[in-house]
Target: Glycerol-3-phosphate dehydrogenase
Amino acid sequence: MNRTALLERLKNETFDLLVIGGGASGAGVALDAATRGLKVALVERLDFSEGTSSRSTKLIHGGVRYLEIAVKTLDRVQLNLVRDALHERSMLLKLAPHLTRPLWLLTPLYKLWEMPYYWTGLKLYDLLAGDARLQVSRYLGPQETLRRFPRVRSEGLVGAVAYQDGQFDDARYNLEVILTALEEGAVAVNYTEVTGLLKKNGKIAGAVVQDRLGGQEFEVGARVVVNATGPFSDSIRHLDDPAAPELVKASSGVHIVLGPTYSPPDTGLLIPHTEDGRVIFVLPWLGQTLVGTTDDPAEPTPHPRASEEEIAYILRQVEPYLGKVAREEVRAAWAGFRPLVAKAQAADTARLARDHLVQESASGLLTLTGGKWTTYRKMALDCVNYAVRRFGLQAGPSRTHERLLVGGWGFDPNGAQKLAQEYSLEPDIAQHLHRSYGSRAGQVAEIGQTFRLAPGYPYIESEVVYAARHELAQTPMDVLARRTRLAFLDTKAAEAALPEVAKLMAKELGWKAEERKAQENQTQERLAVAI
Model:
């Protein structure tokens, strides 16, 4: 995948649709539009999914908490969001079978009266899912609860309610939506920033874009421009209209990563009671344990970091259920911003609806915001449908409900063993490649550089080469944080792997010695304050 060639197309062609933002919603719009025969370009000022879309709780879910709020407040918006998300959950599991899986979640209970309350709620969750339901929710006795999740506190345990949701690798899923859009003819370029909007007779006609790697600024013409920049939506809206009122209220969510002993590999925990009335998840993820999240008002910044206060908050919430966890057990921590549709009367971001919005400005700029990861495909569908109707675009029907992502075509769920035998790979490496690249895993293995990037982790040198050649990776951080997930799992391991990653990328991308050193230094600075 050649970024230079894609950049030339961006500079020299005119498009039906120009999408600003390479997170889940922007990638979804690009793919939906491209599958309908529209000429599409996407620009992203950093790397694809560098912001919100790589920093989720890694759940594909309807939202049990949103259902509880909907029932308590008789809120139809929240209820419809849960129903839509449960349908979309089944879509995501189908479209990328290698990157997704169903996951059992237990809610441990220590008071008898809680059992019918939570059991009834989960039965309603099952009912709303309809034909898209996974396994039926169930009650587990104390003994079965401890068998399924041995770390949970046994004292006073009366049992648990168990239900299934989906789990995924968010950054790789986002990337594969982009790669699939490219296969469908779209242009998508990372590290390209919109610095201005073009107008003709007062109407949006494209954007001024700067290549942040080469420095050149140029114009991109388009019939429709879609602002899909998540928590940064208002900054693009203000390029269009400096007086535009606030549309998005950002919420910060922090996660931490612990070692694998804190969760079994196939079961997660939903902690229903925290000191501020929210919930915390404890989830197995890529061989480690993911814990989060927080939900607090925040001002978006390009590279947010988790504060020590937020890390301490999460550790306090898990202590009554898992016992005391020392700060030094935290291997990585990160923060992300949720884009919530602003409501003047809502001061608590935990209670703002995660529903999405397509808004058109007076000049014709479309802004797509709100929603959540699980509903990215429906958000994109609604946005493209609006653009087609409003601007008279000649488009066919959407195909994203059936268009498997790259790596999904021909994926064999039991193919890891065959991969290990064919390429003489250690079992954990073969399993990792199989689950991360799907039917393209053999292309990675064929590169033949099987030395591990970090002891105890299955990431190998071939992945760095593949990322630079075929996945538009431009910096070591792109590889360490998003093409692989090492920086999200273990900051110290990522720091140790950095010199080798930079060396391999320098060879692939033709960096001079000073460029390689600058890339190493920049990545080291980012890792030093987590990611």
User: Anything to note?
Assistant: The CA atoms of residues 37 and 441 lie 29 Å apart. The longest helix spans residues 76-95. Residues 344-353 have pLDDT under 50 and may be disordered. The domain at 447-528 is CATH 1.10.8.870 (Helicase, Ruva Protein; domain 3).
